[in-house]
Design brief:
The protein has 3 helices and 5 strands; from the N terminus they run ββββαβαα. With about 240 residues, the protein is α+β, with helices and mostly antiparallel strands. The chain has a 5-stranded antiparallel beta sheet with strand order 1-2-3-4-5.
Length: about 240
């Protein structure tokens, strides 16, 4: 992999600030408002975390570097749970879903309609169960026909084997869809719990209130020391 070229900062014509394509400023804010739909979240969020990245300039004055943000490059919004995952899982997994709000080319990215993914999971479960039920019914009808029309032992066994395969497949497919639905539900619960915990911690930080639950203190019992030997005893 070739290295990137090195480029010295330039002095801007307008204010005399140093300008460089790599200069940037990141701003994190906490926002409140009406329930907002976020990417890969089944909840509507009243409190979110916004992260914006801006171009920046630098100016030296009074023996200090003064950094000024300029044009916004991108702005993203996250739930409190997504923000917690972002800062606690660096380098792990394939990344944390976020909602893009603005880019340097699109000042108003369209909103996301509220479409909970658990509803999609429920729809898939319904489709799978309907398909499995139809397969079992069809196999049962073939077996019923083979028996009542006396098509012979071979045809009856084949119909019975087909029915048994349909029933066995229905069990494994049903278990998979149910497990997927349970996983989706657990993710929603985890998102809600993380948001609630983060909100409570923020309230505690702002108000200085003591936590509602605190581990009780106790004195550990002293450990017994070694018993004195005969040579260590003295007569009174």
């Amino acid at each position: 992999m070739s290295r990137r070229p090195v480029q010295d900062p330039e002095i801007g014509q307008e204010h005399g600030d140093e300008i460089h394509p790599a200069f940037g400023v990141a701003v994190v804010t906490r926002t409140s408002g009406s329930g907002r739909s976020l990417f890969q979240s089944d909840l509507l969020h009243n409190e979110t975390i916004s992260l914006s990245v801006h171009e920046a300039t630098r100016k030296r004055n009074l023996s200090h570097d003064w950094v000024h943000r300029r044009q916004e490059i991108v702005s993203i919004e996250m739930s409190l749970a997504q923000w917690g995952s972002l800062v606690s899982s660096m380098g792990l997994g394939s990344g944390v879903p976020v909602t893009i709000r603005r880019t340097e080319h699109d000042a108003f990215v369209p909103e996301i309609p509220h479409q909970p993914r658990t509803a999609e999971s429920l729809r898939e479960v319904r489709e799978v169960t309907d398909r499995m039920y139809a397969e079992v019914r069809a196999a049962t009808a073939v077996l019923h026909e083979a028996i009542h029309e006396k098509k012979g032992v071979r045809a009856t066994k084949e119909a019975l084997n087909a029915l048994e395969r349909s029933v066995a497949g229905a069990g494994s497919n049903a278990q998979f869809t149910v497990d997927s639905l349970v996983e989706a539900g657990e993710q929603v619960v985890a998102q809600a719990r993380a948001d609630i915990e983060a909100h409570v911690l923020e309230v505690v930080r702002l108000t200085g209130a003591a936590p509602s639950v605190e581990a009780s203190s106790f004195d550990a019992p002293a450990l017994p020391g070694p018993a004195p030997g005969r040579e260590g005893r003295t007569d009174a």
